[in-house]
Amino acid sequence: MSKKPFDQSTVRFVKRITVGSTDPARPFSEEDAAASLDTLNRCLSESPSGYIMGTEKNFTVMNVGEHQIVMQWIVYHVGFTRKPLWLG
């Protein structure tokens, strides 16, 4: 099965999917990671299938008392030719 090449000019909808901890008051759990990755996999595999157009890799260093905490996350930009119905 061959796929047509991705043409960025046909993108009409972009979904941002964040994987990782962005809120220091709410720790990032395994369930959160699984939910984010399930959404990403669904975007890439179901019809209409999306394409990863770009990624943002972010981090922040915070001081909590005597401790330094490094929070990291990645944001995937998934482009679609039309908005999938299951995204609502």
What does this structure look like?
There is one protein chain. With 88 residues, this protein is an alpha+beta fold. The chain is 18% helix and 41% strand. The protein has one domain (11-83). The chain has one helix spanning 30-45; strands at residues 13-20, 51-64, 67-80. Strands 1-3-2 form a 3-stranded antiparallel beta sheet. The model has no long low-confidence stretch (mean pLDDT 90).
Keywords:
88 residues; alpha+beta; three-stranded antiparallel β-sheet; 41% strand; elongated
Helix and strand arrangement:
Blueprint: E1 13-20, H1 30-45, E2 51-64, E3 67-80
Antiparallel strand pairs: 1-3, 2-3
Percent strand equals: 35-45%
Helix fraction bin: 10-25%
Label the overall shape: elongated
Question: What integer is the average pLDDT?
Answer: 90
Low-confidence stretches: none
Q: Name the structural class.
A: alpha+beta
How is the main sheet built?
3 strands, antiparallel
Radius of gyration: 16 Å
Adjacency order of strands in the biggest sheet: 1-3-2
